[in-house]
Amino acid sequence: MNIGILGAGQLGRMLALAGYPLGNRFTLLDTTGNPSAGIGEVIVDPDNQHLAAFLDAVDVVTYEFEHLPVALVEEIERHKPVYPSSRAIAVCQNRVEEKALFDRLSIPTPAYRVASSAEELEAAAAELGCPVVAKSVTEGYDGKGQAVLKSPEQAHEAWAQIGHAQLIVEAFVDFVREVSIIAVRGRDGQVVFYPMAENQHEGGILRYSIAPLPDLDDAVQQTADSYIRALLDELDYVGVLALELFQTRDGALLANEMAPRVHNSGHWTMDGAVTSQFENHLRAIQGLPLGVTRALAPTCMLNVIGREGDYPKMLEIKETHLHCYDKTEREGRKLAHVNVLADDYADLLAKVEACADALPGMPAPRWSFTP
Amino acid sequence: MNIGILGAGQLGRMLALAGYPLGNRFTLLDTTGNPSAGIGEVIVDPDNQHLAAFLDAVDVVTYEFEHLPVALVEEIERHKPVYPSSRAIAVCQNRVEEKALFDRLSIPTPAYRVASSAEELEAAAAELGCPVVAKSVTEGYDGKGQAVLKSPEQAHEAWAQIGHAQLIVEAFVDFVREVSIIAVRGRDGQVVFYPMAENQHEGGILRYSIAPLPDLDDAVQQTADSYIRALLDELDYVGVLALELFQTRDGALLANEMAPRVHNSGHWTMDGAVTSQFENHLRAIQGLPLGVTRALAPTCMLNVIGREGDYPKMLEIKETHLHCYDKTEREGRKLAHVNVLADDYADLLAKVEACADALPGMPAPRWSFTP
């Protein structure tokens, strides 16, 4: 089966690497003019001239980036199956629709308001109680298009800085940690869940994910499973879905946002789980049985951001796995990640610190648990 | 680092798949006119016109097939580093040199003679005691160029059938099982060993490999380690070396042959070991630290020969991993392999039988042990 991917960055690259062993071939459609995947047939199409050729080449279409014009995806759906569907994209690329879906499915979220002017932003900030986070409704990615308001008086400045017609304003959550759940739904409706990960961001960019969590109550995993299952079934979803959540001091989960694709917080599964999220996404979209999601060992993923790490030094550390994206260095750019496995969490955290030392500018890890 | 591979079949394909995550790019030189790798830059060069372009493109050269003209490899070595070296190729492609090296390093082998005529073959058969196996000294691969003599009188017929100027004649060994050891030597001389595998052939083609072995005495693994270490050090070898052995009823090991490359009996490591043989070969040849060779679980590899299997059925079986080579079907052709993992050997053997049922023409597995 020839798989078409909209986008030709590191997620497309890792999908292709997972799919060759399944006998797949890949055609990647790049609209940026700057593809980095370095694998498969890459159609560079910044002026949107080659969609027909792309569609001719492929049997099924998926994507690595959900901020695509919905009309384009609907057009593609008229010719070839697209998984996840345009409906998933439409919901996931719009924070208002996403929150409305969470509400409809009784998935708790932080308190929020929608603001369509600086005045409404100011009123929302006052009502929710500062600090609040204001986010553009569309095109948010990796912390761009966001602002934190420490008082309602900052509303006009924040409104101008973000520069969007509509914002979501969210109350700050006193969370213990950020976590995520990744699940996969097959074309036959079968659903499998990965163990939840704890994620550490800095500057809006993911730095560390660790899974499974040594102190996670089974009931919390089951709650997360039930939330993401509700989303998958409601959207008649096919493929990998990621849901980011806050865990509060009392253990409760509040949904933050979701992504209709393979997700950075699931990269640990490439070495730490029986079947990676990439392979399971591909199995799902081509109607194959889904693979086992069990974790093999305590695993931590470290993102390499902006500058390459000292990889020989990191590979000296036992049971580390390198995943380079073959990109040039640029501030804030995701260049690679490293997965570290260990027999126990004390050993894992020691190895992670050693890896972090080999990564320029990597913030120190902060974990919510002590092993 | 751009890695050049001589050959563009499934071993080159799997090397490339293991190397992209290390940040490598690949240029594969195919001299057959019929490459199947389907990945990397493939230079199709049946008339040997493009060696200079290949050498310009790459930083280091390796190969997936040792039956290459030694003069060609020596020529390449004058321009770029080649691992393993032309000396390893020269030894491994010539059974007389290989046996002489085993003898020199006190690695036991079945009793053997060299025959340069039908008369010498007849005399060797009489001396060793029939049955004997006669093998062409060069270009043997997957059971081609071999004959079994049940009596010395068959010598003339066997000589004519094999049609080579020199043969190795080997006494039959009353072995319990065929096993193999795979080891990796780095550019700094570091050596790591994989757990030994038991291999089942039919018609000269590998069908099953299982590792680690539940009934293998540590001392036997250490003996195999010492044999292959002697070979690696003697050849100042860099990369993966595979050594096939017979294990006799009393537990002793007799060397059969070796291959200076990633090896079919090591494909189980792709899912069953912390670091695959492919990644470790690439780490070795570019001077990176070698990865951990520990097995993750009891693992069995099944080769898919001649006709594709029922992959959806096989992927229904938990913890199976498919590795397709994207080739067209042809009798005796290696098309794919499947790795099956399990918690224990009883479970593993049951799953292997279920997988074998989904493979047309697969012989039933026969194991030397009962779980």
UniProtKB/TrEMBL annotation, chains A, B:
Record's keyword terms, sorted: ATP-binding, Ligase, Nucleotide-binding, Purine biosynthesis
InterPro entries reported in the protein's UniProt record: ATP-grasp, ATP-grasp_carboxylate-amine, ATP_grasp_subdomain_1, PreATP-grasp_dom_sf, PurK, PurK_C, PurT/PurK_preATP-grasp, Rudment_hybrid_motif
Catalysed reaction equations from the record: 5-amino-1-(5-phospho-beta-D-ribosyl)imidazole + hydrogencarbonate + ATP = 5-carboxyamino-1-(5-phospho-D-ribosyl)imidazole + ADP + phosphate + 2 H(+)
SMART domains tied to this protein: GARS_A
Annotated residues for binding of ATP: 95, 135, 140-146, 170-173, 178, 201, 256-257
Entry EC number(s): 6.3.4.18
Function comment: Catalyzes the ATP-dependent conversion of 5-aminoimidazole ribonucleotide (AIR) and HCO(3)(-) to N5-carboxyaminoimidazole ribonucleotide (N5-CAIR). Catalyzes the ATP-dependent conversion of 5-aminoimidazole ribonucleotide (AIR) and HCO(3)- to N5-carboxyaminoimidazole ribonucleotide (N5-CAIR).
PANTHER family: PHOSPHORIBOSYLAMINOIMIDAZOLE CARBOXYLASE, PURINE BIOSYNTHESIS PROTEIN 6/7, PUR6/7
Family: Belongs to the PurK/PurT family.
Protein name as annotated: N5-carboxyaminoimidazole ribonucleotide synthase
Source organism of this protein record: Halomonas dongshanensis
The organism's taxonomic lineage, starting at the top: Bacteria, Pseudomonadati, Pseudomonadota, Gammaproteobacteria, Oceanospirillales
